[in-house]
Amino acid sequence: MSTVSLQKDHDLITKVVKSMEATTSLLEEGKEVPGTILMQVIDFSTNFTDICHHSKEEDSLFPALVGAGMEAEEGPVAMMLQDHEKTREIGARMEASARVYLAGGGSKDLVADLKEYVQHMTEHLWKESNRLFPMAEARLQHMARKVDAEVHEIEDAKLRGVKKDRAHYEKLADDLAGHLGSG
Question: Pfam families from the entry (predicted)?
Answer without folding.
Answer: Hemerythrin (PF01814)
